[in-house]
Amino acid sequence: MSISLMTAAWKSSxxxxxxxxxxxLCDNANDQGECYPSIPTLARKCSMGERTVQGHISDMEALGxxxxxxxxxxxxxxxxxxxxxxxxxKSAPPHNPPPTPAESAPLPPADSxxxxxxxxxxxxxxxxxxxxxxxxxxxxxxxxxxNGSRLPENFxxxxxWGDWALANRTGWDADHVHEVADCFRDHWLAVPNARxxxxxxxxxxxxxxxxxxxGPEQARNRGGQSWWASDATVAAEAAKIGLVxxxxxxxxxxxKARVQAAIDNGGVAxxxxxxxxxxxxxxxxxxxxxxxxxxxxxxxxxxxxxGPAGQKHSNHRQGK
Length: 320
Prior knowledge:
- By secondary structure, this protein is mainly alpha-helical.
- The protein has helices at 3-10, 16-28, 39-46, 50-62, 101-104, 124-127, 137-147, 159-168, 174-190, 202-212, 216-223, 231-241, 252-264, 277-280, 294-319, and strands at 34-35, 66-69, 77-80.
- The longest helix is centred in the last third of the chain and has 26 residues, at 294-319.
């Protein structure tokens, strides 16, 4: 596509149909004004019939704007001459605009009064309301509100939020509320938007945060997990609670579990589960077995070998 030829074609004085075909040729031409599009291609670009396109090309060839180079078995080469773009078409009628009513009206005599103003009837378009569309700010604001907003960088816990936490969370004091608020701020400022950093209502988010947060006593117990570090710290924690030291045969892990159970029970060791009498009963010793005399064993073996006849004989003898 030649930009210079396209610009000159737009400025040419050719009729609409011829100018459209000329623009299609310039769109395919190089800077030397040569191109070889097919007639179906030009007809599709110009939304015209093939015969109409060929007629416009013949008219422009007669004016020297286009020169065709026919090749046997190959497409036609079109040479475009930009110097002839302003040549008026022979078929175009002379452009003589009709005179306006002011020009055709006779001039009044100099001494006469000025003519009365001409009152024209209003057209339906004059009565149509004029609609002026202004850019709406509400749409962007509503869009932003629907997606939510981030927690401000300079977030400070409002007094009403803190009062709600003190009124609805048992055992909370002002210091613990501020501690929870610091965790709330640090968490949500670090969360990206894609991971839930945008919220529609931050006050409701704060209330849910408080409902899931630990109380002061639970926080202290959670922070005191350092007593697990060594046997000495476990023994010290047990002494502070009032538990007896590790009993004979009790493993270190079992002793830690006993200390943790006492901490969970409010510092009091839970009662040991009562064992049932059945479980605690010792198994009775097995009664000693008496050995059979050797003669009896030999007699039984003989009866088994003799079969049914021997058994009948044995039973007969026993009956006697």
